[in-house]
From TrEMBL:
Record domain HD: where: 444-545
UniProt key word Nucleotidyltransferase: yes
Species for this entry: Antrihabitans stalactiti
Region (Uridylyltransferase): 1-329
Gene3D superfamilies listed in its UniProt record: Beta Polymerase, domain 2 (3.30.460.10), cca-adding enzyme, domain 2 (1.10.3090.10)
Protein name: Bifunctional uridylyltransferase/uridylyl-removing enzyme
Membrane-crossing residue ranges in chain numbering: none
Activity modulation comment: Uridylyltransferase (UTase) activity is inhibited by glutamine, while glutamine activates uridylyl-removing (UR) activity.
Length: 829
């Protein structure tokens, strides 16, 4: 079958010389594209030229050997040539198919193809099989199957190639259910070995998480008809979507081969500047930013693809009889369906700008991923939040940030789909920005999210947990813009704080946190703490504000922990702790919780006697103000809070006091779903609870259990369990001031609780305080995201001692979520 012409070795040597010429510059045979500059082909053109060159050689060789359309042979390409992604030093992966041909002839033809390539030192991965043999190998070897899914006919009998390609793909689709777990395990093992491309100094572009193997995985899932080949990300998202990310990774790997002069998958730091310049990206930092963007885009797409594929796996046996997943409500316009957070059927994204954050908060709280379809729908239709944000939107943002590490994946999904940048336009400058200091593990944007995750574990250390997590999220927002990032960031923090709708005083605090986030660590580690001038300089910098000092202390630890291993340790912690202690001594004094003043109109209603319940809009789309005025008696606060919780009204803030024998309690509430109940219904329920006809604690426990079990709850709805953040609860005692009815003065202790919120928490707290014999003189309740800071002025009826306080602490800690540590000693602050 052999034809005349050059020997096989000479022809293969020509192939090598032609490949070297392409790498040096110029165009390949049959390739009409022009070079990028000076005869040098750009990465994409070079790959296509290499494909054309190898196909030309194989076609020429096949013609010499008589491998034609009517022969019993076919040459099929897999790997880079099969995908049309031939890199400068890629292996040549070929399968010689045959049918009804003498084995001696098969061996002779194979030798005449393989040996010239070997003699020319071309890396070759080859096999000689019949179609049934090849399909059998694909059925038993997952790696081989993934390779053959990319098979492409080159020359010879087209029917043989078609039989192989269609047979392998048919068996892949039919057997995917039994092979899916192995596929996932193999992928995770590869990620574990090769790491994450987006956050490695020298990433593995092929095998790392977010690399080219992951794109091939998505193609394999698409062939199995389990997911789209580009799940979740189209070309309109930041970075250009999955297709653009794939091309960029290929371009970088192409130039890596060209620079290294051999096959290489791992990008070395010393080659980064040259590759960045060749691709006209910039220096190594610009290249790192491009790679981070591309890899994180691929990673998100793979996450969506695997999840979609798992849900789409064909069912067998009794599993086919499973009921269609139920849609369970999570928040207004947000439901759970099939293990994902999706939009309710009646949700209107185009008319509800706060829906994005409600979806995100629900995802973080329930640890269920947001549906890619939902994110795309939100990206296409949701309007931007107007400045200032409504309180509900800010609260949902805080719920998200309070969720700790559960928020990281949620924010990443929002970022990859362009929704996070819509909420925080300033984020674009730090998106995928690589660190300039080797001690940093993460890109700047990921570092901020990591810092917020750590800060969520410290929210009970501070009296303003909302400002702590916001400051953590924004403390490096000024990077990537030139100048001192603390100064630049402070200006941006002011801008963002106003947009979020914070009070002017809170905007000033947030700005100061960003401006001075390095103050404590730099002073503690570089200055003499024994020098009074050092301490005075810190106090002057924070303007003598103990709250700002408290926030900076927690932020310093979160920032260090999020930077990288070894940045935070006992030495650094002790220095900062000593500096803060010295500053507090110099500041002296303390800020005590104080009750809000009582509205004069409410005092007049109280004088009229009876039970009054008013419910009016609270200024936000989903907030309302409930005012309850009734004759004061033990248990009233617990009953009032319990009735609100039982009707799915979450207490965002409350001010509870008394006047002339009547309790005056004002609650700012937010309905979990829909509209709030009528004020008259709340009044009736309160009267029943006060008369002992409703066991509110028992009903709340049942509602909470039902939600955790995903069973119908009291209102007939269904719920999904909510997970809590990691901040341990904390009880602080203050020596407060009060007044006796005779006009004299009296000191009443004030208990402040910092903890995570839960269903009916205020009801439970008031109940246990009453059980401990403590009369609540006034209360001030604040819910910020998932964190609560509740203050109670207590009358202990002459039994104010360490034993009583310890007993009250134990009772209070017994009803809050999270860990139940042994109560600390009585603390004054």
């Amino acid at each position: 079958m052999a034809g005349a012409g050059k020997t096989g070795s000479d022809a293969a040597a020509d192939l090598v010389r032609a490949r070297q010429q392409l790498l040096a510059g110029g165009t390949g045979r049959g390739h009409g594209r022009t070079a990028s500059s000076g005869g040098r082909l750009d990465a994409q053109s070079l790959r296509q030229a290499l494909v054309d060159l190898h196909e030309f050689w194989l076609n020429t060789k096949a013609a010499e050997l008589g491998i034609k359309a009517d022969s019993g042979f076919a040459i099929v390409a897999v790997g880079g040539l099969g995908r049309r992604e031939m890199l400068p030093y890629s292996d040549l992966d070929l399968i010689l198919l045959y049918d009804k041909v003498d084995k001696a002839q098969v061996s002779d033809v194979a030798d005449q193809i393989w040996y010239p390539l070997w003699d020319a030192h071309i890396k070759l991965d080859h096999s000689v099989r019949t179609v049934p043999q090849a399909i059998q190998v694909a059925g038993s070897d997952l790696t081989a199957a993934l390779g053959m899914l990319e098979a492409r006919h080159i020359v010879g009998n087209q029917d043989l190639s078609n039989q192989l390609i269609s047979g392998v793909r048919r068996d892949w689709r039919n057997g995917i259910r039994s092979r899916f777990d192995e596929l996932v395990a193999q992928t995770q093992s590869r990620w574990s070995r090769s790491g994450e491309i987006a956050h490695r100094a020298e990433p593995d572009l092929k095998n790392g998480r977010g690399g080219l193997r992951d794109v091939q995985l998505l193609d394999a899932l698409a062939i199995a008809q389990l997911t789209d080949a580009m799940p979740g990300l189209g070309p309109d998202v930041p970075g250009g979507g999955l297709e653009q990310a794939h091309r960029r990774l290929l371009d970088v790997r192409t130039e890596l081969h060209r620079v290294a002069g051999r096959a290489r998958d791992q990008l070395r730091a010393q080659d980064a500047d040259e590759i960045g310049s060749a691709l006209r990206i910039g220096d190594r930092f610009d290249l790192a930013r491009t790679l981070s963007d591309s890899a994180r885009t691929v990673s998100y797409s793979v996450e969506v693809g695997l999840r979609t594929a798992h849900n789409a796996l064909p069912r067998r046996g009794l599993s086919r009889l499973r009921r269609v997943p139920v849609r369970r409500p999570l928040d207004e316009g947000v439901v759970e369906h099939g293990g994902e957070v999706v939009l309710a059927r009646d949700a209107r994204p185009k008319k509800d700008p706060g829906l994005i954050l409600r979806v995100a908060a629900a995802s973080a709280q329930t640890e269920m991923p947001m549906s890619a379809t939902t994110l795309n729908r939100l990206s296409d239709g949701s309007p931007e939040l107007r400045e200032p944000w409504p309180k509900e939107a800010l609260n949902d943002l805080l719920v998200l940030l309070d969720s700790g590490r559960k928020a990281i994946g949620v924010i990443e999904a929002l970022d990859r789909t362009g929704l996070w940048g819509r909420l925080l336009p300033e984020w674009g400058a730090i998106r995928d920005l690589p660190p300039r200091d080797a001690v940093h593990t993460w890109t700047v944007d990921r570092h901020l999210v990591e810092t917020a995750a750590y800060a969520s574990g410290f929210t009970t250390r501070v009296s303003r947990p909302d400002l702590l997590v916001l400051g953590a999220l924004l403390h490096d927002i000024g990077k990537g813009r030139g100048g001192d990032h603390s100064v630049v960031g402070a200006g941006l923090a002011t801008q963002i704080g106003k947009r979020l709708g914070l009070w002017p005083s809170d905007v000033a605090l947030l700005t100061a946190m960003v401006r001075h986030h390095l103050l404590l660590p730099e002073t503690a580690t570089r200055r003499d703490l024994e020098d009074p001038a050092t301490v005075q300089a810190v106090v002057d910098a924070v303007d003598g504000d103990p709250l700002l000092l408290e926030l900076l202390h927690a932020l310093a630890e979160a920032d260090s922990l999020a930077t990288g291993p070894g940045v935070w340790g006992d030495w650094k912690a002790s220095l900062i702790r000593d500096l803060v202690r010295r500053c507090r001594v110099l500041m002296s004094g303390e800020q005590l919780p104080e009750p809000d003043p009582i509205d004069l109109a409410h005092i007049e209603r109280a004088a009229a006697g009876g039970v009054h319940v008013d419910l009016v809009p609270g200024g936000g789309m989903h907030t309302f103000v409930v005012t309850i005025i009734a004759p004061d008696h033990p248990g009233l606060l617990s009953d009032a809070a319990g009735v609100l919780a039982l009707h799915s009204l979450r207490v965002l803030s409350a001010s509870c006091g008394s006047h002339g024998g009547s309790a005056i309690n004002t609650f700012v509430v937010s309905p979990k779903f829909g509209a709030p109940p009528a004020a008259g219904l709340l009044r009736q329920e309160l009267i029943r609870a006060s008369a002992g006809e409703l066991n509110l604690i028992k009903l709340l426990d049942k509602k909470e259990r039902d939600a955790a079990d995903s069973k119908p709850v009291v209102t007939g709805e269904q719920g999904v369990p909510t997970t809590y953040a990691i901040a341990p609860p904390r009880v602080i005692w203050f020596e407060g001031r009060g007044e006796r009815s005779d006009g004299g003065s009296n000191t009443n202790p004030i208990l402040e609780l910092r903890a995570e919120d839960r269903l009916g928490l205020l009801c439970r707290l008031a109940a246990v305080l009453e059980q401990c014999g403590a009369d609540v003189r006034w209360a001030k309740v604040s819910t910020m995201g998932s964190a609560v800071v509740d203050s109670f002025c207590l009358d202990l009826a002459g039994a104010d001692n360490a034993t009583t306080r310890r007993r009250i602490e134990e009772a209070v800690l017994g009803v809050v979520p999270g860990t139940r540590p042994k109560p600390p000693a009585v603390e004054g602050q």
